[in-house]
């Protein structure tokens, strides 16, 4: 019996690392590639290549044969502190677009069964996300385009790039728009972490009787999806005949202050919330619209936010504890 051959681009990252573990459990032969090794655990990939996918030579080395599946998760990205300052826009757009151009070009040369591209909810127009109580993020609302960041613009361009290669070169493409994926073994400090990890870290570090800082007025809304449900959605999309783009996210929308309150409650600490004004917090409201995924795949994420936060907080609490000199 021939093992399914899979290439995971971005295998040293949070989602890519979890994806490699899932694919190995399912019996696939996996090659992983990333500009760095995984920060929190050794990769379970059969082969792991450290290389920069903006370099065509590296892409030719990595994609030197036909793969049954390619998962393209590699990107220059981070949380609000990285994406919204404007200081990293050129790198974000150049590096991510170059990776996608290189991977698609080489995938056409080698042939591939299916290729998955991880897009983002950041592609949705800012004008549909000004009301924190009523954001509009249905898949067909993406145009007229007006993402709130250059990160979102690059993702939207790359969606069109994958669709064009599908039409013109016969690639079997699948595209998902991720909505704030979180869980253990993800970046939790250093400036590139996203809201759930940042809040879990702040709560874990805070002594009783103090307060944690939450950016903005805390009334901005988001939904957050635990990593296991994200990967389940990806697997179902890849097994289907639906190209996408499709949202993979939770419909359990909370304010940032509510997110912080949940984590504080899980910690058992007596901690307050101090909202601080910062120049960039992104759109006022964002929430996954799951009507299309339910219609096309007969499934949608349903796990309560608190369940995933329980696992994530405990993992980050352990990281904080281990990083403090004993």
- Unreliably modeled segments: none
Mean pLDDT: 95
Structural class: alpha/beta
Distance between the first and last residues' Cα: 52 Å
User: How is the biggest beta sheet arranged?
Assistant: 7 strands, parallel
Our estimate of the beta-strand percent is: 15-25%
Level-2 CATH architecture of the largest domain: 3-Layer(aba) Sandwich
Q: Report the radius of gyration as a whole number of Å.
A: 19 Å
Give the helices and strands as they follow along the chain.
Answer: EHEEHEHHEHEEHEEEHEEHEHH
CATH-assigned fold name of the largest domain? Rossmann fold
Helix content: 25-40%
Gross geometry: globular
Number of domains: 2
Number of E-state strands: 13
Q: Can you walk through the features of this model?
A:
The protein has 326 residues and is of the alpha/beta class. It has 2 domains: 5-181 and 225-248, 3-Layer(aba) Sandwich (Rossmann fold); 183-223 and 252-285 and 304-317, UDP-galactose 4-epimerase, domain 1 (Alpha-Beta Complex), CATH 3.90.25. 39% of the residues lie in helices and 17% in strands. It has helices at residues 14-25, 56-62, 80-83, 89-110, 150-169, 195-205, 227-239, 256-267, 291-297, 305-323; strands spanning 5-9, 29-34, 47-50, 67-72, 112-120, 173-178, 181-182, 211-215, 221-222, 225-226, 246-248, 254-255, 272-276. The chain has a 7-stranded parallel β-sheet, sandwiched between helices. A two-stranded parallel sheet has the order 7-10. It has a two-stranded parallel ribbon with strand order 8-13.
């Amino acid at each position: 019996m021939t093992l399914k051959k899979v290439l995971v681009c971005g295998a040293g990252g949070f989602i890519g690392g979890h994806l490699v573990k899932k694919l190995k459990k399912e019996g696939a032969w996996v090659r992983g590639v990333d500009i760095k090794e995984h920060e929190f655990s050794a990769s379970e990939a059969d082969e792991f290549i450290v290389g920069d996918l903006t370099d065509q030579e590296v892409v030719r080395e990595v994609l030197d044969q036909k793969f049954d599946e390619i998962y393209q998760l590699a990107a220059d990205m981070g949380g609000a502190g990285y994406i919204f300052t404007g200081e990293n826009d050129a790198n974000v757009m150049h590096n991510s677009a170059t990776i996608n151009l290189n991977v698609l070009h080489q995938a056409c040369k080698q042939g591939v069964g299916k290729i998955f591209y991880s897009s983002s909810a950041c592609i949705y127009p800012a004008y549909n996300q000004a009301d924190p109580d009523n954001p509009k993020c249905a898949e067909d609302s993406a145009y007229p385009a007006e993402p709130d960041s250059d990160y979102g613009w690059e993702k939207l361009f790359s969606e069109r790039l994958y669709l064009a290669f599908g039409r013109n070169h016969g690639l079997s493409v699948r595209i998902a728009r991720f909505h704030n994926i979180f869980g253990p073994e993800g970046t939790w400090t250093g400036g590139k972490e996203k809201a759930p990890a940042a809040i879990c870290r702040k709560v874990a570090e805070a002594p009783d009787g103090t307060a944690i800082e939450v950016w903005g007025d805390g009334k901005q809304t988001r939904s957050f999806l635990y990593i296991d449900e994200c990967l389940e959605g990806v697997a179902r999309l890849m097994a289907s005949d639906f190209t996408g783009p499709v949202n993979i996210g939770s419909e359990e929308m909370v304010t940032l202050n509510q997110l912080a309150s949940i984590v504080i409650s899980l910690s058992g600490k007596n901690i307050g919330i101090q909202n601080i004004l910062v120049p960039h917090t992104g759109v006022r409201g964002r929430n996954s619209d799951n009507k299309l995924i339910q219609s096309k795949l007969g499934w949608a994420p349903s796990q309560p936010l608190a369940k995933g936060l329980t696992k994530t907080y405990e993992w980050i609490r352990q990281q904080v504890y281990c990083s403090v000199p004993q």
